[in-house]
Amino acid sequence: MSPSLRAILGNPDVLGSGGWAQMLQNDFWGTPLADSGSHGSYRPLCVASFKLNYLVDGFKPFGYHLVNVLLHSLATGLVVKLARHILPAGRSGVAITGLLFAVHPIHTEAVAGVVGRADLTGCIFYLLALLAYIRHVRWRQWGDGRQWLALAVTVLLAGAAILCKETAVTALVVCAIYDIIKGYAGSRDKVRLSTTSTWPGFPAVAGHTTVPGSPGIYI
Can you give the residue ranges of the Glycosyltransferase RgtA/B/C/D-like domain (predicted)? Predict the structure, then answer.
């Protein structure tokens, strides 16, 4: 039996024989995690999406493939949004990034194969976690109390990504790396600003200098 058939046709969690709560105790293929024959892959959110597909349209392939295509489209949009945050100013780099992600052949299996939905859903929550953490860092720099809300959302989204595919466990690590890089870049900017402030005539304009990306904060 092919992976797609086994994940759906042979999965009791999808067919409903075990109930919604049962999928929290089973692996990706519907085998109890405590069973010696379990694959060990724990992806209940992805399995839940298969179950919803089954409840809506049974075993008709079109619905499963349509959802995968829509998920890939959403992931592409999130990649574009992330690129706007981390790439230098300019639309060309962002557009190229989005285009490469959308059409790169490495994604063919994830989109065309139904079981590839684990990669798609994991990717979406992964990207959402990164975007939430970027918001956390920005609000933290501004002293905005909502930084803690953004941090909590980041952790929840990272957890959701892990429940779609185990490899998403690296999401919080990537967030930490982003924070380190952002902090280093911020330190360089402060040094540059400090050096600039010693130039003749700088005090005359210092009161009207805004922090890039800030909502009208003056230094």
Answer: 52-183
Does residue 76 contact residue 102 with C-beta atoms inside 8 Å? yes
Contacts of residue 166, defined as CB under 8 A and 6 or more positions apart, other chains included, come to 41, 42, 43
Written as six digits, the tokens of 189 are: 């900017």
Give the residue among 199, 74, 179 at the shortest CA–CA distance from 134. Answer: 179
d(CA 190, CA 192): 5
Distance between start and end Cα atoms, the chain: 65
**Mean of the per-residue pLDDT values for the chain?**
84
Q: Which amino acid is at 124?
A: I
Q: Which amino acid is at 119?
A: D
pLDDT digits (tens, 9 = 90+) for 146-202: 999 999 999 999 999 999 999 999 999 999 999 998 876 555 545 454 554 455 554
